[in-house]
Amino acid sequence: MNLAPETGSSATSPGVSDSWLRRNRQALAPWLFLAPGVIFFLFYVIFPILQSFNLSFYRWDGLGDPQFIGMENYRELMDDRAFEVSLWNNLKWLLLYLLAIPAGLFIALFLNQTVTGIRLYKSLFFFPFVISQVVVGLVFSWFYDPTFGLLNQVLAWVGLGPINVLGDPTLVTYGIIIAGLWPQTAYCMILYLTGLNAVDPEQVEAARLDGAKGAKMLWYVIIPQLRPATFVAFVVTIIGALRSFDLISIMTNGGPFGSSRVLSFYMFEKALSEYGFRMGYGAAIAVVLFLIMLCFIAYFLWSMYQDDKGAR
Amino acid sequence: MKTLKGTVAGLALSLGLATAAQAELSGTLKIFSDMSNPAPRAVMEQMAEEFDAMHPDLSVELTVIDREAYKTQIRNFLSANPPDVANWYAANRMRPYVSAGLFEDISDLWAEPEIADALASTKGAMTLDGKQWGVPYTYYQWGVYYREDIYNELGLEEPKDWATFKSNCQKILDSGRKCFTIGTKFLWTAGGWFDYLNMRTNGYDFHMALTNGEVAWTDDRVKQTFANWRELIDMGAFIDNHQSYSWQEALPFMVKGEAAAYLMGNFAVAPLREAGLGTDQLDFYQFPSINPDVELAEDAPTDTFHIPSGAQNKEAARAFLRFVVSADNQTKINGGAALGQLPVNSGSSVDDDEMLNQGFEMLSSNSPGGIAQFFDRDAPAEMASVAMEGFQEFMVFPDNLDDILNRLEKARERVY
């Protein structure tokens, strides 16, 4: 990798050294190293995205010849009530999923002390993130079970209930989001725990000398230093919320009567499930989801670019 | 084995068919099957083995794929890497593959007298666009499975008409139980109720017209079906919170005696027996008549074998299909030790099982109206998914009926 001596030796054999490749190797090297990644990214990410855009203008059952129908799929989306429900549910997921960030922060602050056995507590709190989403879904399904579930037994002790969380169209999405928050909070907690390790003790000391403590200390000294952790937590939580699929599939299968669907699940139902195979329509849903994601992705990239500029 | 081969050859000769090839099948026969549960899997493996033994020059390659995964994989392998024989289902469920030209037209098989006569009862289910696209290998009845001991305790009779059906139910409710268990989480179970209520209210022909998209969902006759359904819902006949349970999760309510009956396919019998219900606790009756003017019709879903149009060894595939539907083989694979279902060949005998005998009796002599497949096989997939979702909503919020029917009507206008 040591390029410098080679460049020096170029004077001895001018015919070779003046070749275009040699002259530009400083500029070319990074691109050569990037090439495998870029090719895979183009082939497996960018190209399928463009393909989905294209497919959304067709009517296709996956078997016969696709038939071009222009914007027809999108027009149908406009007055498809199931799509509207999915869109609203996606919004609920986006907003409520963000609760994982403050919850993770507070658990991290709570666990960031030196007590005997703290490692054990930390791993217990981190545990939900390690287990599969399928298991989380099953555990919460049992918890919510209207007849035998723990939730209703607890509610009965305090004279409430019974409620059928997963069978009630108004509650079901919130029920699943709560299940999703459980592992997501653990993830955010880990991000903050590592962030807390990097907090500058001198600054804390200085703030303490200035008389800051408690909430003021947290708000003006600790949280600003946790900004990188918060940013990562925000990114993974937003993406997690938009990708929500497995919990819905496991816990309700989109029901009751489709009231817990989100866009990704609805796309799966329309394009790939047992009764679906409307590839074009599924692609149209996927495009809408992609455009929503694009807003966030653009914001994240812009924000990272700003940080990068500030660091330079 | 020798005698069987001799009979087949003799039969072929006597009919003057040029099926000399029958005896000299060669190459490989690739079979893809969705019979992945333990018992069906054993059946399928044995059939492949026997067929292999019958034809020394032919090697049979069997691939068994998980039943749920099969439903999505079939689309890929039919177009990319077709086997010679594949499992699927009858009626509209095969339409996508028929329209895309992926299933072989086997009307020639159905023209052979052994098949035409012996399988006549299922010909309709295998026919699309006037041609036949596969052969059935098994079917099973639907009906009301009930707790005989609870009925005896309350002095109830198997109902033959709607009034008795409801008065029975009222007595069961008065005794602190629910009349019917059902789990609608995966929607299709509600489709079974709709099938029966609609076929009893408006008859088989109307039901077929509706699932074929020829009748509006907002039609008054459809509304009458829902009105009948609503009588049961308003009584509180169904277990609470059924929208949260799968059909298996709804079984314990019946096993524990909290619900007295289950409208289901015969496949529910095995788990109910395994859960401890004895022969004196479990019995079966035909869904009673509602409108005396319509003939009784039944749901009896049929599972089938098909030849993909891209198959390499179609001659061997046809021979395998003949073998699968032959009377002897049908008797064997549908026996209690194997699939435990009903054979489709009229020359086969039904296993000596209480439920199967009753079911066979019902389907062969007491369903003059006709045999339907099931809601999600008679209606196109897209219509079925929207409709079954509507049925589930109706069972929870019967007041939403008009809204549901308008939604279904909109789907009907788009789908067909």
UniProtKB/TrEMBL annotation, chain B:
Pfam families from the UniProt entry: SBP_bac_1
Record key words, sorted: Signal
Gene3D superfamilies to which the protein is assigned, alphabetical: Periplasmic binding protein-like II
Signal sequence region: 1-23
Subcellular location(s) per record: Periplasm
Similarity comment: family membership: Belongs to the bacterial solute-binding protein 1 family.
Name of the protein this chain belongs to: Extracellular solute-binding protein
Species this chain originates from: Phaeobacter piscinae
